[in-house]
Protein 1
Amino acid sequence: MTRCLIISNRLPMNYDQQKKSFIPSAGGLVSAIMGLDAEKVGQEFHWLGLMTDDVDSSQIEKMKETKFDDITCHPIVVPKQAYDSYYNKYCNNVIWPLFHYERNLVYYSPSGWKNYVLINKLIAKSIADYAQNSDNIWIHDFHLMLVPGMLKELRPELKIGFFLHIPFPSSEIFRELPQREEILRSLNQCDLVGFHDLSYLNHFKSSMSRIIGEDGNDNRDRKWGVYPISIDTPRFKRIAQDQRTKEKLMEYLKHKGNGQWILGVDRLDYIKGLILKLRAFKDFLKKNPDQVGLVQLIQVVIPSRTDVQEYQNLKDKIEQLVSSINGEFGTPTYMPVQYLYHGVNNFELAALYQASDVLFISSRRDGMNLVSLEYVVSQIEDFEGSILLSEFAGAHSTLSYAISINPWDIENTSAKIKEALLSPQEVRTSRMKPMMKFLEQYTSSDWARIYLRDLTIEYLPKEESQILKKENFFEWIQHFSDKKILFFCDLDGTLLPIAGHPSQVSISMETLMLLEEISHNDKFSFVIVSGRDKEFLQKYFLDNDLHLSFGACHGAYAYDDRIGVWQDLINSDNLKWKELVEEILKLYTIRTPGSFIEDKGHALTWHYRSSPANFAEFLAHKLFNELEENLQSFPVKVVRGKKIIEVKSVQANKGAFVAHWLNNLTPENKPDIIVALGDDTTDEDMFHALQEQKEFVTYCIKVGQSPTVAKYFVHDQTTVTPLLKNIVEQMM
Ligand code: GDG
């Protein structure tokens, strides 16, 4: 079975220094992962999480390779002081409040960030040491957002997934984060980033586009997705039917008498909206005196972060409000709010779920909220309750038959409490049944299975495609020995890294030296085939005395180093389209600050990399449609690239260019082998043309992992120069 390494801040068991024993870790993430059925998901799970170095080494050893429900645990030991700073000063004082829209509770501290970087680095290093090449890496939650980038650098061949369990906030909030860029750049290294809700994905996309200029084109649809978490439905059903639950239920029902119970189960946290819930309940009692004495709110609050002042203040506020409601509406035989400040065991929880008529979730923001899902599947025949569910919880999309509330609207929420309590049984049943059915079919194991399928799905033709890694370059190029090689190589994103602006492109000393070596060796011909115009290529390479050949403007113009002049390969009779396109592009350029038009001869390109991202993206979309509609009768193609829209003559095509090049080779220039490299869709034309011809041995290499017809691929642009260098050295 394939191994899946789950990485999270916590392991399922936590060593309690005071109690000197392991106790189960609380919280939604652990609940969800513990619910995975390895067999159903089809992966063997190993769980890597943190332990601090103040814990007795014998306890750490004990934890190592311990199995919990078929999951092997592997602690990553980190310095206690650095851990506390990372966890309290960055995770909980910055990310948690900011991502939950509580900006006034954010406290920045430089040491918090420094230790966040340090702990993430230690984790990345431990994964790199532990992981086997075929492992799938699944990193969880906001504590570890730098790990993907750091790990990709150490082990580029690993499949790396990330899942965020909390909301991703609007880009208007996210962009306040001083370290926004570092975090986005790291997440951008993932093979798949998953969210609970579409709104979080949309916020993430717009942050990506505004802050680091990732525009959602290319293969982003594969890299970012929505995977609402679920629960271990069979387990909750089993607990619901357990004798111990039944006994507790009988006890609770006796106390409940002929009244009604509203239930709340929340960790002590400002995101859960406990104050708003109590206010709405108070308003309900005030407006419905006939219900006083009959309806009770049973509020379980699970202690959390008890050492933090903010949480102590919240606890005080909750307790004040509880006692003011009880003082105002209580009688010697009736307590409106039953407040429990401690956890309950699984059977008590299931019995509470069954005994209550209404579950009340009032979160101000909540990634998902598992309690609401658990309530649904714990219902047994004739005990079907109602759910009041905040529209600010991710579960709102999954539980579409719940009664929706805006917890900030106290009066309306109070009216909804009444509606929920008074709903006739058949209405409750008709609401509960579809949600129950959904959760029977979609469990936490399905969540993991679907996510991991998307993480590992291979888009390349499986049997035929082969990854070229730095460690096996040497072996691979053995069959090139003493051969004449012709290279066709794309420029931006292949030979050179993509630059912020086309004019800022820079070439490394290593690549420059390599090109020099190639251009002075008769065994090689090197043709750069690029979307760039003639002038750029001339200035950048030829004027620097590099003897290379070129296909400019996607191959519309050719420059053969042995001839030394530029040739126009396209019949220029019909350039009427250019006038029309220029007219349209000008209209978009004058209203989009920072955008400009580039005339490449057989192509016109509208660049908007330096324009306000969202606005430019919106106009680019419109422009693309307008051009496609207007140019149907012209021999042109409209292309959307990275921050560009381009209209080019259909003949300006890298496939046509290489075919032309091969047709014009003299016998003494004929190569033994052709190697072609490229990273984007225009390079696919080149790969197609080369694989169709039968005269030469060809090796087409895709840079990156988007769909391709090439038989080989390398992970990213940084691998290209080392690969070429290996080939050249082999020939020396
Ligand atoms: C984060 C996100 C997202 C709670 N009290 C008791 C108890 N629990 C269990 C519940 C549930 C879990 O803890 C709480 O999960 P939530 O989803 O409600 O909340 P968070 O801990 O904030 O989790 C959240 C989640 O990650 C998963 O992605 O849904 O939005 O904030 O399973 O049952 N269990 C028992 N006794 C208790 O007293 N037995």
Protein 2
Amino acid sequence: MKLHEYQSKQIFAQHGIPIPHGRVAAIADEVRAIAEELGGKVVVKSQVLVGGRGKAGGIRLAKTPEDAAGLAAKILGMEIKGLPVRKVLVDEAVNIATEIYLGITNDRTSRCPVMIASSEGGVDIEEVARTDPKKIVRKRIDALLGWRDYQGRDLASAIELPREHWRSFMSIARGLYETYIECDATLAEINPLVITKEGHLLALDGKMVIDDNALYRHPEIAEMRDIDEEEPEERQARKFGLSYVKLDGDIGCLVNGAGLAMATMDVIKLHGGEPANFLDIGGGASAEKVREALSIILLDSNVKVVLINIFGGITRCDEVARGILEALKKHKAKLPIVVRLVGTNDEEGRKLLAKADMMTAKSLAEAAQMAAELVKEKAPA
Ligand code: GDP
Ligand code: MN
């Protein structure tokens, strides 16, 4: 689950990380009042769950409360990368001297958290990673030892931070580590962490992603979920207990079991296709669950072909078939569908599907190949 900037920064502040004064608002008049409280010069920041708000015009500096209200009215009417802006954060404006990057995430290769820092913080950190990777330094964190202050010093030195800021930087790094661990985050990021012209370090932006599987331990964070800001497909999937992740490809996948779903995506890729999503309907899925799962796929306009891969154990293939038929009736989709259905009650399942116009495959490899070829046929030459 992603947190908004204002939510992330509030959590950072609880762990001793300095943040600018500010408050969130949903209407322009409120913004004017907050700007007056903060002394007039403020920055009005759209709160949407995507990066690159600055470049999209969603972050604007205002010189007066009047100016702030005007900019807020504009920003509150915007859509950024398809997401409507419903709230803005009004922060006191800061005189920036330097922008640094500081973040922690899970490093799956080394199987531990890693703290990442760069002297080239700001809006183009991905570009820095590509063009000047030496400017990005990493410190792996031993799970048993936790974050050590000497690692903070090492990072400060590696990014050539002026000596007078080391103490503050180390305290912020420690705070970020504690935030990350205590919230069960998979990402905690400050970009930019700025040095102000007055010589203070301040977390100007904040981003956190919380591990969904740990949310039950953090009811106060679970409550922060902003349903309006999620992909409608993902919201629908959660409602029906489906594990769904949208991807960039064009082959929609409906699979039972996370491992099989991963394998299915791999085999699609092996045959030159691109999966449009990860979707695990789970074990023993009902027809209703299958119907909703397939509906999510059919409503995705990127999907050109659907691949259904079911290995029935607890899951009954006839139940799956019924769900598929219900979804097709509901959506009248004209998309080609390739099905591989084996296991419990598979014959019954196939009989049900025989009435619908679908392609069946005997193996996963065959199904993936068929799906990949169907996409190529549909693509303009
Ligand atoms: P993002 O574009 O979504 O990452 O949003 P950020 O919160 O990181 O803001 C983008 C950029 O806006 C920052 O890198 C700063 O350069 C600038 N910015 C944000 N807040 C202030 C501020 O208070 N004063 C000034 N001068 N610039 C700011
Ligand atoms: Mn940022």
